[in-house]
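step: validate -> pass
step: tokenize input -> pass
step: predict -> running
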Amino acid sequence: MSKRAQQIAVPLISVLLGIILGAIIMLIFGYDPLWGYEGLFQTAFGSIKNIGEIFRAMGPLMLVALGFSVASRAGFFNVGLPGQALAGWIAAGWFALEHPHMARPLMILCTIVIAAVAGGIAGAIPGILRAYLGTSEVIVTIMMNYIILYSGNAVIQNLFSKSIMRTTDSSIYVSANASYRTDWLSALTNNSRMNIGIFIALVGVAVIWFLLNKTTLGFEIRSVGLNPNASEYAGMSAKRTIIISMIISGAFAGLGGVVEGLGTFENVFVQSSSISIGFDGMAVSLLAANNPIGIIFAAFLFAALSVGSPGMNIAGIPPELIKVVTALIIFFVGIHYIIERFVKPKKQMKGGN
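step: predict -> pass
step: emit ->
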């Protein structure tokens, strides 16, 4: 087996093991896993509308996952993606609400830029602290999630003008000019919430692939991720690369936030906890081994599981069990070194290891 084949096989085996172990757990609790999975996949792919919902869910997941992949390639575990996504959502949502009559092309462009800037600023803070003070980006980004969550809620409740608020905790819907949904996508998918976010995400995949594989900055990001000291010795600025990679990571998380906010919900509202696309996006990137192309397929799987999970009620299985299956898949991805012992490249097999 070639190295590339191994890179493809390990995630697939992780998914298969997660599904099998999930089935065993269902059996332990007295449920029929075959009936449960049948209901899940029938719900996910049984109608044009639900297929549209899968593509709707893929957009923000892919963008957040791309942000995580950039930070990971630079050697950092950016746990602040939920906060960075929320920052992009709130900033772009406020702009859209305050300028309802702006021309649609300009509005879409402005909200994309604003979301990327807001997310990038949120990502830059832990990047700067890591580069110049050596702080742990994991601890800082976890704390930033709470800071952005509660600060964002306070901004919505106290600083948003009354004219754009429907209740104390929720804004009115944005104008049609600002919504990421389009009539033709809605008609194509039987009135699903599929929106232009999926196309933004596909452009993002191309941008990140090109950045990481075809540019000097991408080479520096990968080099610093492998060995920052050797990179410094080779003339690269590890501090600059750390900050830039975290800005890019936060910017893509912010884009994921605005796609979720203006594409799925079409308004801004108080959050009770960190938004789920942040952590789910991390899982997508981990399953794809931080590969931009692989993120497309991993996001499709996670979106299908999410959209199809209510179908498990057909078998009387709580749909929350699909979260257990998802967690198991990530668990097996996390212990990929064990799987790799049984799925070895040709060179290792010839060496008798």
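step: describe -> Residues 62-303 form one domain.
step: cleanup -> pass
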